[in-house]
Amino acid sequence: MNFEIDAFGTLVIAVFFLFVGRFLVGKVQFFKNYNLPEPVIGGLVAAITAYILFKFFNISAAFDAKIQNILMLMFFTSVGLGADFVKLKEGGKALFIFLFCVIGFVLVQNAVGMSLAAALGLDPLIGLIVGSITLTGGHGTAGAWGQVLETQHGIQGAIVLGMASATFGLIIGGIAGGPVAKFLIKRHHLADKMTQDAADTQREASLQSAPFEYPKHTRLITANDAVTTLGMFSLCIFVANFMTDFSQDKWFELPTFVWALGMGVIVRNMLEHVFKVSIFDRAIDVFGNASLSLYLSMALLSLKLWLLADLAGPMVTILLVQTLVLILFTAFVTFKIMGKNYDAAVLAAGHCGFGMGATPTAIANIQAVTNTYGPSHKAFLIIPLCGAFFIDIVNAVVIQSIIAIFG
């Protein structure tokens, strides 16, 4: 029995499980100690609940995909609208160094997947599916490239395998980041847990913040500010949808979320630096953080965990090895290259998020860590831009090159 849940029902259920996640993180010491994001925990509870209902009662639900897509676009738009060119200079050299780490990991991820697939007697392109196509690329990339591999390269079941692999990655990406950061922070004595008073004092003392940096901080906004900000979001998403249709099958074709992010950057900097219009960052932060939490909750709510049961033994083996490689790479390569300090530990948690999940997961990871140990302005400058924009370009180039060679 399958139930169709409309947009409002989807929103209600997502909010409910988001509160469940918040409650569990507050009450379960393990979740709190390892800085696991509230939307990820709540979403996992929802996914497990859906699995039980399907497995034992043959009950499933189809949730409204449009509202989830809107929230995803709002999240990426907020990344762009928060990208003031003046602030981006603060990322500077560190942004490009971190991008170097990301490129290195994409290559390692594919080398591991393809070599293990070959060793297990599978087509090396299957290793690419359980490599950066799904683990760095996520569900959208899995669907797009899965269709190409099925129709052009004869990899049967590539889409189903890709979706299952991306599901596994999204879960692991949200779970691994906090423990990796905690290990690094404790091992190198980089920070102590903050008391609530210390956290409030630091937030009040901060004169500048990057997007998503203080998700639990109260931001005072007016109705006019909210309406103006909603108008900017709507403009960016409207143009993004138009450009997606216009660029289809052309050399500059890009996913809608990339257009939304790019439009956010253009609108923000045109208004602020050309027309001298003051941008109200607090309203952008409110919309961005709200859409981030709800999107993550809905994404996990919509996961079909029973797809993981369809993974053959070799696929599970490859994914487990990929998990180990991710943890070792972020803990000993990303952390070391980024300076072996507190910022580097937070960046390692973020790298876990989009190295085996998605950019929203990366943001949630670094929010969970900084809520416990203190702010990392550098991480909140670098992770959204690198994870939302550069990683997709890098991944697309790498995948296309490998398929051209091995296809």
Automatic annotation (TrEMBL):
The answer, when asked if Acetylation is one of the entry's keywords, is no
- Tell me yes or no: is Ion transport among this UniProt entry's keywords: yes
**Chief subcellular location:** membrane
- Name the UniProt record assigns to this protein: Sodium/glutamate symporter
Q: Which GO terms describe its cellular component?
A: plasma membrane
Q: Which family does it belong to?
A: Belongs to the glutamate:Na(+) symporter (ESS) (TC 2.A.27) family.
Q: Name one GO molecular function term.
A: glutamate:sodium symporter activity
Q: Which residues cross the membrane?
A: 7-25, 40-58, 70-88, 94-113, 125-146, 158-185, 226-244, 256-275, 287-309, 315-335, 347-368, 380-406
Q: Which UniProt keywords apply?
A: Amino-acid transport, Cell inner membrane, Cell membrane, Ion transport, Membrane, Sodium, Sodium transport, Symport, Transmembrane, Transmembrane helix, Transport
Report which superkingdom the organism of origin falls in. Bacteria
- Kindly list the biological process annotations in GO that this record carries: L-glutamate transmembrane transport
Described function: Catalyzes the sodium-dependent transport of glutamate.
Tell me the membrane topology, using the record's own terms: Multi-pass membrane protein
Where is the protein localized?
A: Cell inner membrane
